[in-house]
């Protein structure tokens, strides 16, 4: 036993130290051979020296990192598209044109009856470093104005393929209101009802139809007939509905027009897809816009915020991002509710 432990005058610890050293040396040699073989493989693939054994820098290996979702042939969904947005001077319309420019659209027409769109267009163009925004001041209910807007932006940038008619008004009052003094009932004025219908329902539908007409005629000029799913989507319409489409006290005209857009979108989608045009409706809840602020802080605090799960007004930017989602994702159609958890009370 003693002879085994001493082994030519070598103690046990020293003996095992030598064994371990030889083992590690052989393993390192094997690792080095594998490392050198790997370098040679890299060199043959990259076509450039990849030596790293002498401290030189190894040529980096090109890595395909995950990319943002792309549209057809690597083009981002909103890039190179031409948009028309009505009601662009404030609120949701303004937030949307800002978002579209940031996402790289080729051009966007800022349509509004307010001259504020001219300053907004200048600001957007300066920030983008290119002429992407074009201000168009006029009445959205005018057929002549609508045709001129499409003519001008098409001549300059090509066929419009995004249309978001966001212009809208409210003329709120009870449908029937009793006068406690006289005992007589006042009926909601038909003139106001017609005005709200013109701005909120007829105008949006016909701005959308204008785009569909232009796309259909452009396809005909190019000898194309019915749209084929192998093609890219030709255009997208997003109507601005409202949670009031479910019914809301004091909004007989406004609620009617917003509900009407649901039927218009559903019908137009069935027809316009023949030309490759999609239609959708987004129903915002109470959003921090001049229209909502006009209700008054007391009304907002008493009748809106307590019934909203977020307990705040929706930000216009949040609606703008949701609209861009509807535009970008071709699988999405129908209606999107962006109501922040608010629903009309009984």
What does this protein structure show overall?
This protein has helices spanning about 1-5, 10-45, 90-100, 115-130, 145-155, 190-220, 250-270, 290-295, 295-305, 315-330; strands at about 80-85, 105-110, 135, 160-165, 175-180, 185, 235-240, 275-285, 335-340. It is of the alpha/beta class. It has two domains: about 1-45; about 75-340, Rossmann fold, CATH 3.40.50. The strands form two sheets. A seven-stranded parallel beta sheet has the order 3-2-1-4-7-8-9, sandwiched between helices. Strands 5-6 form a two-stranded antiparallel sheet. Strand 2, helix 4 (about 115-130) and strand 3 (about 135) form a beta-alpha-beta unit. Helix 5 runs parallel beside helix 6. The relative contact order is 0.10. Residues about 1-15, about 25-30 and about 35-75 have low confidence and may be disordered.
What portion of the residues fall into strands of 2 or more residues?
5-15%
- The N- to C-terminal Cα distance equals 98 Å
Number of domain units:
2
The tally of beta strands, per DSSP, is: 9
Indicate the structural class. Answer: alpha/beta
Principal-axes geometry comes out as globular
CATH superfamily of the largest domain: NAD(P)-binding Rossmann-like Domain
Q: CATH topology of the largest domain, what is it called?
A: Rossmann fold
């Amino acid at each position: 036993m003693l002879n085994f432990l001493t082994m030519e005058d070598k103690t046990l610890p020293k003996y095992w130290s030598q064994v371990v050293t030889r083992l590690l040396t052989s393993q390192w040699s094997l690792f080095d051979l594998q490392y050198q073989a790997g370098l040679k493989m890299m060199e043959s693939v990259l076509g450039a020296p990849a030596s790293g054994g002498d401290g030189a820098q190894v040529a980096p290996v090109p890595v395909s990192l995950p990319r943002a979702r792309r549209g057809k042939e690597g083009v981002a969904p909103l890039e190179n598209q031409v948009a028309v947005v009505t009601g662009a001077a404030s609120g949701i319309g303004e937030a949307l044109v800002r978002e579209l420019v940031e996402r790289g659209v080729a051009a966007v027409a800022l349509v509004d009856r307010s001259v504020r769109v001219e300053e907004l267009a200048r600001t957007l163009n300066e920030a983008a470093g290119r002429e992407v925004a074009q201000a168009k001041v006029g009445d959205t209910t005018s057929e002549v104005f609508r045709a001129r807007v499409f003519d001008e932006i098409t001549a300059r940038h090509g066929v419009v393929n995004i249309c978001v008619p966001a212009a809208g008004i409210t003329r709120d009052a009870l449908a029937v209101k009793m006068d406690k003094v006289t005992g007589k009932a006042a009926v909601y004025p038909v003139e106001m009802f017609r005005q709200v219908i013109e701005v909120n329902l007829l105008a949006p539908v016909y701005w959308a139809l204008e785009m569909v007409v232009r796309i259909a005629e452009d396809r005909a000029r190019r000898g194309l007939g019915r749209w084929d799913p192998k093609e890219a989507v030709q255009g997208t319409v997003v109507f601005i509905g409202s949670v009031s489409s479910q019914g809301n006290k004091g909004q007989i005209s406004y609620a009617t027009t917003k509900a009407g857009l649901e039927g218009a979108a559903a019908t137009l989608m069935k027809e316009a897809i023949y030309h490759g045009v999609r239609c959708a409706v987004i129903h915002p809840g109470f959003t921090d816009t001049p229209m909502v602020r006009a209700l008054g802080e007391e009304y907002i605090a008493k009748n809106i915020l307590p019934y909203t799960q977020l307990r705040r007004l929706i930000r216009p930017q949040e609606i703008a991002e949701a609209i861009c989602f509807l535009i970008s994702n071709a699988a999405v159609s129908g209606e999107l509710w962006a109501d922040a958890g608010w629903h009309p009370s009984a």
